[in-house]
Design a protein that fits this description.
The complex is a heterodimer of chains A (about 110) and B (about 290). Chain A is mainly α and about 110 residues long. Chain A has helices at about 10-40, 50-80, 85-110. In chain A, helix 1 runs antiparallel to helix 2 and helix 2 (about 50-80) packs antiparallel against helix 3. Chain A is elongated and about 60 Å long. The chains are: A mainly alpha (about 110), B mainly alpha (about 290).
């Protein structure tokens, strides 16, 4: 072995942990929400509003997860003083934010 | 929430995801046709549910690929500028494009996937020549190396034609947002032919980027109200469980037979989507 094998960078370890646990947490939250909604459906009160809101929160968490991943990358690139890739991360975040804004505008357009 | 329908959504997504995972394919391409044609779900809501499951599968599968250093994180963030911009365009287009066009486009992507599944995928097997390296890739330091198990050593690779790769990625992002799929069908040729990455690096990096690309459009669809929890919840859960199972069964099934079955299903769904585009629907007519 002549070539030195590069070790995992801190960023890769951090990203792997974030995505792994993030997916698990979001999945558990969605499952709990749906399970309580089914239980609520069977009881007389038919209280399914809050369990469904919990499940919606889990879905929102899942959508936010990749955004957090870009934030972590931005932080890592800034620490490495790699400003060009940090700029790429900022542009990606700006585009994702623009998507949310477009969604908000078109939603209100439909409502009124 | 209808418990029976939720269970059906969960089971169907689990099956699609496990089946897709066996050949390294995302489940999104199956979920939208199944939901619209067999579940009678409105296509925008089907796309909303599918895009959430695409995020879940990308994020859920990323960790082992990152840990084995197959993902080129630096290249990913550069290409994501193009994929998210494409996704943003897709969100705008989805609002104005008539529904039959969506069905038509989906059919085209299904046929393209079938054709791609038939043709054996080739990575860049040839040795790296020092002559035509990309200037962008050099200045952004995108070249990297990965542990090659077959060679038993670290293998260095160069990234080529980044501008062309970016252009193709823009298209992949657009299709991803429009149809609620991971769009690996367009990302992988971009990675293989334009950027000329080793096949494992290309798959890992593509999977990594799919989450951010899908989140760019999912954020918009969530705010717009196209993501219905009663649909997206069971679909996302089923897809995550299916992806885990699919990776486990991968070793047990002969891939060549699976490949043929896959092509048949893709063509079948494509024909269904074509019929739906023209206003006919045999599978779901009651």
């Amino acid at each position: 072995m002549t070539m030195s094998v590069p070790t995992l960078s801190r960023m890769e370890i951090l990203l792997a942990g974030l995505l792994h646990y993030g997916t698990w947490i979001a999945s558990v939250v969605i499952s709990l929400g749906l399970a309580f909604a089914m239980i609520g459906n069977r009881t007389e009160t038919h209280n399914v509003a809050w369990p469904m809101r919990l499940a919606t929160g889990g879905i929102a968490l899942l959508i936010v997860l990749p955004t957090l991943r870009v934030v972590v990358m931005l932080y890592a690139f800034l620490r490495e003083r790699d400003y060009r890739l940090a700029l790429a991360a900022v542009i990606v975040l700006a585009i994702m934010l623009a998507g949310v804004m477009i969604g908000l505008r078109t939603a209100s357009g439909v409502a009124g | 929430m209808d418990a029976q329908f939720a269970a059906w959504l969960f089971a169907v997504s689990l099956g699609a995801s496990a089946f897709g995972g066996m050949l390294g394919m995302a489940s999104g391409i199956f979920i939208v046709p199944i939901l619209t044609m067999f579940g009678h779900v409105e296509i925008h809501e089907a796309i909303g549910a599918s895009i959430v499951s695409v995020i879940a599968c990308s994020c859920g599968g990323a960790a082992p690929l990152l840990r084995s250093r197959l993902t080129n994180v630096r290249l990913a963030i550069v290409l994501e500028v193009a994929t998210t911009l494409g996704a943003l365009t897709g969100v705008l287009a989805a609002g104005v494009l008539p529904v039959p066009y969506l069905y038509f486009l989906f059919a085209a992507i299904l046929f393209l996937s079938a054709q791609q599944m038939l043709a054996k995928r080739r990575g860049s097997a040839h040795a790296v020549a020092a002559t035509d390296t990309c200037r962008w890739a050099a200045t952004l330091e995108l070249h990297s190396s990965y542990p090659d198990r077959e060679l038993g050593r670290e293998a260095a690779y160069k990234v080529r034609r980044v501008p062309m790769g970016m252009a193709l990625m823009y298209g992949a992002g657009l299709i991803s947002a429009l149809l609620g799929i991971g769009s690996g069908v367009l990302k992988i040729p971009a990675m293989d032919t334009a950027l000329q990455l080793p096949i494992k690096v290309s798959s890992a990096t593509s999977n990594f980027m799919i989450g951010v690309t899908a989140a760019a459009s999912a954020g918009a669809y969530f705010m717009r109200g196209d993501i219905v929890t009663a649909l997206a919840g069971p679909v996302a859960l089923g897809s995550v469980v299916g992806a885990v199972l699919g990776a486990r069964i991968l070793m047990l099934v002969p891939t060549d037979k699976l490949r043929v079955l896959f092509v048949l299903i893709l063509v079948g769904l494509g024909i269904q989507m074509l019929l739906a585009a023209t206003g006919l629907n045999f599978a779901g007519s009651r």
